[in-house]
Every structure is written in structure tokens, then in C-alpha cells.
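Key idea: predict the complex, not the pieces.
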Amino acid sequence: MSTTEPAVELHGITKRFPGVVANHDIDIEVAAGTVHAIVGENGAGKSTLMKILYGMQRPDEGTIKVAGVEVALHSPSDAIARGIGMVHQHFMLADNLSVLENVVLGAERLHGIGGKARRRIEEISHQYGLGVEPDRLVEQLGVGARQRVEILKVLYRGAKILILDEPTAVLVPQEVEELFGNLRDLKREGLTVIFISHKLDEVLSVADTITVIRRGTTVDTVRPGDVTARQLAELMVGSELPVPELRESTVTDVPVLTMDGVTVRDATGRAVVDDVSLTIHEGEILGIAGVEGNGQAELVEAIMGMLPLDAGVVRLGDTDLTGMATRRRREAGIGFIPEDRHRHGLLLESPLWENRILGHQTRPPNVKGVLIDRQGARNDTERIVRDYDVRTPNIDVTAASLSGGNQQKLIVGREMSGDPKLLIAAHPTRGVDVGAQSAIWDHLRHARAEGLAVLLISADLDELIGMSDTLRVILRGRLVGEADPATITPDQLGSLMTGAGEGSAA
Amino acid sequence: MIEQEIRTPAPRTGDRERRRTRMLAVGGGIFIALILLRLITGESDITSSGTMGATLALAVPIGMAALGGMWSERSGVVNIGLEGMMTFGTWGAAFASYFSGNPWLGLLGGIVAGAVGGLLHAVATVTFGVDHIVSGVALNILAPGVTRYLSDLLFTDEKGGGATQSPPLPSFPTWSVPGVGKPLGSLEKHHWILISDLAGLVRGVLTNLSPITLLGILLVPVSYYLLWHTAFGLRLRSCGENPVAAESLGVKVYRMKYAAVVVSGALAGIGGVFLAMVASSNYQEGQVNGRGYIGLAAMIFGNWRPGMVAGGAGLFGYTDALQLRGGAGAVHAMLLLIGIGLLALAVWRGYRRRVVAAAVSAVVGAGVLVWFFLTDALPREIVTYSPHITTLLVLAFAAQRLRMPAADGMRYRRGGGH
Amino acid sequence: MIHRLFARSWTRTLVAAFVALVFSIAITSIVLSISGFNPPSTFQAMFEFGKEPDSIVNTLNKAAGYYLSALAVAVGFRMNLFNIGVDGQYRLAAMLAAAAGGAWSLPPVLHQLVIIVVAVLVGGLWAAVPALLKVTRGVSEVISTIMLNFIATGIIAYLLNPGRLAVQLGPNNIGTKTISRSGRVPGTPFPGTDLKLYSLLVIAILAGVGFWFMINRTRFGFDLRATGLSQSAAVASGVDARRMVVMAMVISGGIAGLIGMPQLLGESYTYSLNFPTGIGLTGIGIALLGRNGPVGIAFASLLWAFLDVSSQILDFNDIPKEIVAITQAAVLLSVVVVYEVVSRVGQRIDQRHVAAQLGEVAA
Amino acid sequence: AGCGGKKATTGGGGGDGKKTLKVGLAYDVGGRGDKSFNDAAYAGLQKVQQELKLDVKDLEAKEGESDNDKIQRLELLAKSGYNPVVAVGFVYATALGKVAPKYPNTKFAIVDDNTIQQPNVTDLLFAEQEGSYLVGAAAAKKSQTGSIGFVGGVQTPLIKKFEAGYVAGAKKINPKIKIQIKYISQPPDFSGFKDPAKGKTIAQGMYDQGADVVYVAAGLSGSGSLEAAASAKKWFIGVDSDQWQTASAAEKPYVMTSMLKRVDTAVFNFVKSVGDGTVQKGDVRFSLKNDGIDYATSNPSALGDMTTTLNDLKQQIISGKITPPEK
Ligand SMILES: Nc1ncnc2c1ncn2[C@@H]1O[C@H](COP(=O)(O)OP(=O)(O)OP(=O)(O)O)[C@@H](O)[C@H]1O
Ligand SMILES: Nc1ncnc2c1ncn2[C@@H]1O[C@H](COP(=O)(O)OP(=O)(O)OP(=O)(O)O)[C@@H](O)[C@H]1O
Ligand SMILES: [Mg+2]
Ligand SMILES: [Mg+2]
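Result:
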């Protein structure tokens, strides 16, 4: 392999999905031994492009060259055989298998599935400082460790070209730093890294070259030294970026949600939410910062009544919610924007107006007595579609045929229509395009001004800092710190989240 | 297949060593309990070699179905069509062995016929993405129709054959481990504690074995080895846990699922061979008689792991053997064991501070004991179904630590991941 | 144009059903020709026989049981619950209802009502067992209902003994005491035959309408469907999964209790050794064939019953009538395969349509 | 109640009836090949075909079917000119009750039932308890262990009749005899008639626990029991037809005798009587008296000098001195 040849060349790649052209005439050249970043907003077509390069999807048009040779990739095996490895945006791990099994899967020919493979894994883990234990079950690992297992999987196969699709989305800044350290090591060993992200400061710090994709096509390729984050963002979006921020405080001293000593245990008796006490007032947005998997999800489910409490009390205003069923809690005035909209927020195969009913099955305008009020629900769905700018031809299409952002707007609209006193917003703008993002922030700000209390959970630290009146940090199920959103930086927050500086940081 | 909606956080999987010792302990514990029961009640059949032998004979077809189900579900394909595949197996065995006159070709015929059933299921579920249960149900409708249709065409003109049965089939030779039968038999007759019981167990398991029984027993560790200690097995299981991830690593998911479901059918087919050629001497319509479904139960009961699956089949086979051989008396004696077991469970639960569970166990246990002491025998009609009642009770009272493969029953499309 | 045609799910179902029927007729023909029979004349014989008045009545009567059975199964399926126990539920219910109806003499109307209510209650209660085992102990309903079918057989056999609930009906037959005239529902005459239509066919029709209404128009039905479509989303929306499991199983069992009623009150008046069995298992196939919808199931059960009834003539013509089982399985499998393909195409058309309407084709 | 037949060649004169006679037969579940009474009926039908040179048509039943299905089956035969028509099994009672009045010129017979009171219906009834009594006595005489067994296929009144006669016969010889009794399945689960695996397990269990003779009234499941007998080298008593005839060479020595229920004779005689015009309506009872019930003597070495005792008991039953119980 001559080093003058680019490691990967993609020419004129076009990929159509029913209803969407995900990639359109894309051209990219990746020089060998570099970190090449690809940026673009949600739905721009980055993942699709990478899946094409990894043989998971076939392009409709265009050519792929690896090390100067044109290739036809029919399956991941073809890509793997050419030294391409990919770490996917969503973890590709089998929870019930051990790390070892996950790593050797598909590459058993290299070192078998036994002791030799284990030694090899330990070797690689040591070489790149990944700290992976081969015999742990994956389900016992945290996100950071899973990420490292994914990287190890690729390295184990001796990949020379590494694709990392949004590897940092679930990592805190410190973990990101570690990852970047790893990447630099890899580069030094002569590997080529294709790195996808839309966190622009990260991209600028690690990449040698940056390609911007917008609406499925390449708009520009730049060097990090030549652009600022701001310029890059505008290239990406084609317009100005929205900024999450609150204006004047609307916080009152009327408590809406009060949690006192709330503890939730899993089947093994471990406290996943540990003695949590907090109060959210009318007009207040309380942000919870924390590395994923530290009890945020369980905290939310405890408030929603989806998990039983082991100890403690949850109150909404003067009403004691403890022991109340989820439905009663919703009726009492809790709105819920779930973290995973496909799993918890929508009936994908049902029309929009039925999705309007979901979660509000007992309240007008959706029902009359025990019967469903179809007309009422339909009319109100029309209203949501109008007020929240849900892009859809009509309300009879299935939720699955909407784009992610529009699905999210529908959910936000629905949850706001119940006149909630408290809104639980878990990652409300995750995977949503910029337009929808700023619309959702607007809605939150507006409702807050009218006295809504919001519990905001987000992995996007800018959003968390910009949108919260109060910030609490959760670590291993405990609230370990409090921060002032007016003064804290993402870096400081990140170190709180990893427990680097326990206690309060002003 | 059906999402577990009752949220119980995933159990921690213990390491292999611990699981193995636990299995041995449970097995030994049950055996000792049975000996005690024999002593108390005087029902010597409880641990006799005959009961053990019958247990084996009844457990093998169920165990084959269960093992087949495990193969299929480990690859993520729910197989409720085991019943139909076994039916194909019985017929295939009859067809091949009768027309060739060779029992071994009968074995081959049963395996092939079962595998064809598996192949159909695979085509429907894997290639066409049909709901697994639908396809399985269709197979269970198809199999009796096809076999009867074919029998009508092929067996009616043969002596002793008909639309519902084949002529008598050639049989397999049976083997006994030499030098075991006689001495153990005499030991057994003494009804000495433990020694006679062990003699019964060993003699039951080592004498008058048909090669299919041996094959069946052998297939348990073989399945374990193949699925847990080979690359093929790892790939296969990964399809049942996370097919998208498997595909992303170059595993040919469709191919693995096909392999698993076809093997599943072949195993069910062996169960069918056993029924047609070992447990009886001809193919008989309706011979499978729900054993495929019970195999499915044994598989779930066995937590999708070969050792436990075999244990589940064994438990069912044992209770069935006991009720068939001993009838009302022996099953009545079992009440004592169940009652005491439940009380023990209640104590343990009380100790773990699970008051409600403890109370339920205590009440049911006491009820069973009262029943035992107030009656001499159980109604025949109910005794017939004691294996089914036992299965239900064990499932209800044993701690629920079952974990099905994560992607079991999921429809998987190639390139479907995002 | 095409998207308009495919927009409605019933058109998709119709297309699927039609293609599947053609396909399964093709399969059946192939099997017949291979075994040396003439397919067209075979089908013609079946059709000729099937359209005789006797056969029509028998088909309709049989379809009533199949329909109720499939509805019972479908209630569970709609929320991903697999009630294989319909068979045991209806047999136990029919037996106890027959015993009650034979034992108590009541004025007309009340008598029939009591019998039916007993059946529904027994079916529902027996179905509650696996439901409770599932929600309290996590026992898979697939296993528990299979086991309970067997156990129900044991209980029926125990109770159906002279001296318990049975009397001798003939030298070799036993059954519950015959229900007196006040508890019977006379059949409806049908032109051209002495066979009578079960008047309680109406129960099946009412149950179908009720099922449709419950599923589509009530809050409970919404919760049920939501649970089936996405368990996790339903729970997050406030559906109580445990309660739904119990409710759905009990309703399913209640409907199962009705299965034996047209036959019991319209024809046999006793639960004897001769009472039809296995309807609960047939219902699974029919529910799947009818895609768990009340209309689809109606067509499916009529088709199934027609095939069952008209197959009698095959035996008479020395053609193995099991060919019908092959047809039934082929219909079932091909319907799902075809529906799968059709709905995938439909979904794709939908998405393209949405994108086109929004002018976002170039993403 | 139209006679509705298209080519109805119903009845006709008594004399030249033979030529137009077409014989129809409807089986109970299990159908042809059940090695039990369906098969026996078929044997009768074959004899009709061979000796009387008549057209025959036999139709099978489906498991779990309804009365309407049976009505249609009988009508199909009657309508198409089959006469006489034989319904095998009491399950046809209700159906026959509806069909017989519609075809007054067709002669019907039903096996094992006498609840239908119609001028054109003949009831073919069997005193199974009598034959069972004899084989029970034989078993008790043969037994050296003082322990014998009974395996029933499905616990129905019919099979309980076999049990009752057997038990009474055995007790007559040895009042203290131990009798193990077991049924394979419970109605309406009729799988007990076709589960040889269980038939084998049960018989094995009985032999293991000391029984040395087992009487098996379990249809096809009996073949499993016979295997168990052969491998335990103990005695087996068959049922319905002479199972010594159908047993394999290795198994023949262990078939002590069989309780014969001559459904074949009954069917043949009935058809013949229709041809002769001597058909009798109402109950036709088959018992030891008219050789409709008997025990097989095809394995004389097994029976030895026992036949004297058995024939003596047989005479006592025929003469009414002994009345074996039916339940
Ligand atoms: N398998 C598929 N079928 C249909 N449409 C798809 C499929 N995969 C992706 N799309 C569509 O293609 C477009 C590009 O998606 P892609 O996942 O490549 O975007 P992305 O740039 O990776 O976005 P993100 O930042 O959210 O990861 C989206 O509109 C998406 O809806
Ligand atoms: N495998 C797939 N099959 C069909 N449609 C798909 C598939 N994957 C994605 N889509 C389509 O992509 C859209 C959203 O999918 P996804 O959750 O991947 O978000 P996304 O493409 O990243 O979009 P966004 O970034 O706006 O959330 C949906 O409209 C869905 O129809
Ligand atoms: Mg995306
Ligand atoms: Mg992406």
C-alpha cells in the first residue's frame, strides 16, 4: 500500500430510501494515516454514507475505492476483509454475551474463541490503554466501557481504516478526551480514522480534515485551522445556529414536584436511585446532569410510577403520588417527553391522531366516558400539527412515516396539551434537526413563563446549562452536586459528572 | 416471542462453575428427597430401575423437542411448530425404515423429514419475515394433513398399514452395558437405603438402551459444546441476542438462522423417530400427542440451556412415568414431597422477608399436606395429568430467573439495522 | 393512484387474501396432480357438495364456533398474549354450563341466560389462572395454557362421571343431564334441508360486533391495542400492564366460554363424550388467518368451515380428504407471507407519499 | 323429509335386492387401522365384499367433529343409494336419530348403542363384560404372583365395562388377587387409544410390580403393551380381535389369549340379513351365547388345560348362572 494513495475515495455516491434521498452525489477523499471528520446535522446522511462504506448498504450510484482499488462491498465481511472497521452510532453489542464473545464474533478464524483470543484482547487492550476485561458480560458495562469494547472489536480484526459514527454522543468530556487520546495513538500506528460528530469543538481539536455534509450531499472540505466552530456550524446548517438560553428568571417559591429520600432498587438489591431529594418550583427548569446510566432513567420512571419506590415520597403540589399508578400521575398533571421516543413515546404503526390519544386516554378531548372521541382527538391533533409545526400531509399517516424531528414535535405538542403542572423532558432535542430544536426550546421557555415546572435531562451539556434555572448532578443514583448554570462551563460540569470533584461547585 | 412486560431487572448470570455445582446440588437433593419419600410411603417404584427406564423413554422425545426448540430460539426463531416437525419425523422414520427394511435408514428418514419441517419454518420466518408463531401454527396444521395424506397413498396397500398408521417397522437392537443388569437388579431388590435406589437409577439408565436413547442423551452435551464452545455456536447465539450486531460483524445471519431452525427440525425429527420406532413399533397418527408443546415448555423451564432443558424433560418424564406406572398411589406419595417442599420454601422466603410469597407457599403447602393425610389415593382422572400439574407448580413456585435470548421472536430483515 | 389504493388497510388485506387463495389453490392442485387426482374435478366436487343446503347449514354452524374461538384468541393476540388455552376454557365452560342447565330448571329466557352466564364465567375464571400466574409469578402464558388444557381435560373427566355431574345417556355414552326444553334455543329452519341453523349464531355476530366496538371505540380497546403495538409505549402512557394481561385473558376466556353455546343450546343439550373438541386450537389458525380483526376472522372461519365440510365428499370419491389440511395450512402461510410483502410495499409507498407531499424528497 | 337422493336405489324387493345392494359404513374416530372395532368393522365389510360380492363404501370421521358432520356423512351414504348403512360407534347415535327417519327404506345399523328407536335401525350390542370375565378368570388362573393388570385406553363407560368384567372374572378364581388398573387418557382426550409409547410404559410398570398377566383394552396403544410383555417375558391378553394373529413372531408366544368382540361378524351378519330380508330391528345382542363374544384359543400352549375351566364358566354365563357386571 503506497501512502500517497488516499485510504478511501468515495465518488458520486447516491443512496435513495423510499421517500428520502439520504445521499446525493457525495465525493470524499480520506488520506491515509489521518483523522478525517465528517460533520452534518441530524439526518444529513452521515450514517448512511458510512454504512455504505462498511458494506451494510449498497449505494444506488457511485464508486468506492479503498487504497486506490475500486471495490464492490456486498456485506460487512467484504469491508472487514479490506481492513475497514466500524463503530456504530448505536452500540452493536449483544448484552447477554461476554466481552470476549462480542469481540471475537465473526472473527473466530483469527485466534479462535478461547484462551488465545483472550490473550490477544488483553494485549490490544493494554497496548491502547482500553482497560477492557474480556470475561465480563456486556450488560454489566457502562457506556464508556462499551464504547471501548466497540473500538477493541475493530482493532481485533486488524482494521486499518476505522469508522467512528458519533462515538462521543454518550460520553462526558473527560471520556471524550480519553477517546481522543486513543485516536491519536491509533493514528500514530498508521491507522486511518473517519470520525463523525456534530460537536464541532471536538471535531476541530482532533481532525486533520473536515468534510461537511448537508441534506445528503458534500458541501465543503476544510482544514481545522482554517475555520471557526461558528463558520463550520453555518456550513453545516446553511443558516445560523440556535442557542439554548433562558432570559429572566421566572422561578417562584411554589413547589410543584417534591421528592424526599426516594430510593429505587433493582432486583439484585442495588440502589439505582439512592436517597434522592429535590424540589422543583413553578416556573423553574431543573436540569439533571449525569453520565448516561447513572440513574436518570430510573429517576424519571420513579416519578412516572413505572418503577416501584423502595423508600421515599414523591409529591406533586400537595398530592402524594407515592404508590399511585402512572395513569393517575399523568392525570394529576405530569407531562412526559421520553428519552426514547420510539420505545416510550409513540405507536409507530398508528396514525398521528391515535398517537395524540396515547398517554391521555382518560381525558378530553380524546374520550367521552369510556369511549374514544375520534372527532375530538382528530381536531386536537390538527391543532397540534398547526401550532407545533409538525410537517405532515395529514393526520392519518402513521407516526413511522414522519421524520424524527417531526415525531418529537408531535410528542412535545401532545404533552403540552394536557396542561401539565410538571413536564419531564428527557433529552427533548436528541436526534432532532436544528429547526425543530429551537422550536422545542421556545416551547419550553414559553411554558416555563406560564408557571410550568420542568425536569430536564439531557446529555447535551450546552442545552442543560443554557436551559436550566437550577442544575443538579447525578452519579451512581445519588445527587452529588449542585451547580449554577449561570457560571459553570461544560468542562466543569463534566468533571462533576464523573465524580472528579464531589460536592458543590459554584 | 412475547415481551416480558412485568419489569424485573435482568438477573445476574452466575459463572459456569457455580451453575454446575448448583445443578448437581439440586439433582442430588431431589434424589435424596425421593429416597426419603420411598422410605416413608413404602412406594418402592419411586426409585426403581423400571421407573428410571420409563422416565428415560418418556423424556427422550420431549427432550429432543426441547433441545430442538432451544437451537431454534437461540438463533432468535421461536419454534412453536415442533409438534409438526415431530409428526414429520414419525412419518419419515416409518417411510424410510419400512420401505428399506433398515432401522438406521428410518433414523435418517425421520431426521430428514423433521429437517424439512424446519426448513419450511425457516423459509417462512427468515426469508419471508412471517411471524414465528403464525408459521409454527401453520406447520402444526400442515403436518398431520400431509402425513395422513401420504399414508393414505403409501401405506394403505401394505399389510398392517392404513391412512392412520404404518405397517410394523423394523426395530433397533437394544444395548445394555455389560455386567450391569444382574448384580444391580439383585441389589435393587433389597430395598436398601440409597444403595438400592442408586442401583435402580443406574440400572434403569444403563440397561436396555436403544441407540436412539443413547443418541438423544449424547445430543445434550453435543449441543452444549456446539453452541457454547465453537465459533459456529457463538455466531448462532449472537443471532438470537443481537442479529444487527452479528450482521455488522460479517455473520451471515440468515444462514445461521436457517441452520439453527433446520437442526431444530432434525432434532424434533429424532424425537419422532423415537416415538415411532423405539417407544412403539409403527407410525401412528396422533402419536406425538402434544409432546412438541411439552418440549417447548421444557425448553422454557430449562432457561434455554441444554443441561436445564434436559432436566425439564426429565422432570416431566419422571412424573409421567410415575403416574403411568405407579398410578394413584405413587402420585399420592408425591403430595407429601410437594407439601414439605412448599413449607420449606415458605420458611426460606420468610427468612428472606418476602412475607406474601412465604404466606402463599405456606398455605398451599399446608393444603397439600392436609390433602395427603386425608386421602389414600388421588382420583385417576386427575392423576393422568400430574406431569402437567407438576410443570405448572414448579414454574409457579420456582424463582423466576428465566432469560430468553434477547432477540427471540424478533422479525429480522437483512440490512434492517440503523 | 396506487398509494390511494394501498392507503386503506382493508385493501391490503383483500389483496393479500386473494393472492394467498390463488397460491394455496395452486399448491393444492400440484399435490393433487402429483398423487394422480384431477384438481379441477376435485374442486368442483367440493364446491358442488359445499353449496348443498345441508352443507351450507353445517358450514355456518361450524363457522360460529370457529368464529368465537378465533375472537377469543384474537383478544389475546391483539396485545401479544398467546392464549393457547381457549380449548380447555371452552370445554370446561361448556361442561359446567351444561351441568348447570341440566340441574336447574328455570323459566325460559332466564334458563338460557343462566347457562350462558355460567359458561362465560367459567371460561373467564379458568383463563384468569394463567393470567394471574403470569403477572404474579412471571410464568409464560404459552406454557401455562398448554398445561391447563390438559388439566381441564382431567377435571372434566373427573366431574363427568355418573354420581358426579353425569348421567348415563346410552349404554356407552355419558353426559350431563339433558337441558330441558325451557333452556334450549330452537334452531332456525333453512330452505332445502332439515338441518337447522343454530339460532345462537347471533351470539357470534354480536360478539364480533362487540369485539370491533371494544377494540376500536373504547378506552379499554385503545389500551389493549396500544399494548400490542408497543408494550413500552403503552406502559409509559399509563396503561397498567398487569391489569391489562388479566383483563384481556379474562375477556378472552369469557368469549371462549361462548364457543360451545350454539351447539349446546341448539343441538346437543348435553355435554357428552360426543361434544365437539379441538375448536380452541383451530381458532388459533383462524385468528391468524383473519389477522385478528372481526371481519377478517369472519371470512377466515367461513372458509375454514367450508373446507372442513366439503372435504367429506373427497372421502366419498376416494381422495384423501387430508388434502384440505394442506390447503388450510397453505392459505394460512401464504396469507401471512403475502400480507407481509404487501404491507411492506404499502409502508414504503406511504413514506414516499409523505415525503413527496412535503417536498422533501431531496433530503 | 324428502328422500332427496339423486340416484337413490333405495330398497327394492327382497328377492333380487342382492344385485342392487351397496353397503355404506361410517367409522368412529380412529378409523380404519385402529386394530380395534373400526378395524373389525372393516374386516366385516371386506368379507361382505368378498363373499357377497357387494359394492362397499367406507367413510372416516374427524376428531372432535360435531353431530352435523356425522349427519352429513350418513346422509351422503343414504342419499347416494347405499343401503344398508352401518354406523360404527355410539357417537353416531344422535346423528342416526335424525337421519334414519328421513330414509325409511334404508336399513341402518349402529354399533354399541341402542338409544335410537326407529323401525329401520338395528342396534348391534356386545356383552364385552362376558368375554372380559372369561379372560379375567384366565388371567387369575395363569398368574403365579397373584397379581395381574388391566390397561384401558380411555376411561369411558365402554372400556370400564371391560374392566368390570375382567375384575369380576379374576376375583371369581382368586378373591384375593391384586389387580392393577390404569387408563392411558381421559375423555374427551381419546389419544389413549393411539399412544403405544404409554401403553408400553404402563404395562412395563405393571410387570415390574409383580403382575404377570395384563389385559389391554386400549386399541392401538396395545401394541406397545405387547412389546412390554414380550420383553418382560410375561403374559399379554389382547382385545377385540385375535391379537395372536397380528403379533410378530417374537411376540406371539406371550399372547395368552384375546377377548373377541366380533364386530366383523355383526357387520357381516347384518348385511347378509338385509340381503335375505331377514333383518331384525332393534337390539341384536352379541354375547357368548351366539359367538359374538368369545375368547381366542389360538395359543393353546399358553392356555393349556385352562380351557376346561373357561368353557365351564362360559356355559354358566350362557345359562345365566353367572352374570358378569357391566360396571
Ligand atoms: N433504512 C432506512 N430506510 C429509510 N430511510 C432511512 C434509512 N436509514 C436512514 N434513512 C433516512 O435517511 C436519512 C439520512 O439518515 P442518516 O442516518 O444517514 O443520517 P445521519 O446524518 O446519520 O443523522 P444523525 O446525525 O441523526 O445520525 C434520514 O432522513 C433517514 O430518515
Ligand atoms: N430501517 C428503516 N426502515 C424504514 N424506515 C426507516 C428505517 N430507519 C429509519 N427509517 C426512517 O427514518 C426516520 C427516522 O429514523 P431515525 O430514528 O433513524 O432518525 P434519523 O434518520 O436520524 O432522523 P432524525 O435525525 O430527524 O431524528 C423515520 O421516518 C423512519 O421511517
Ligand atoms: Mg439518526
Ligand atoms: Mg447517524
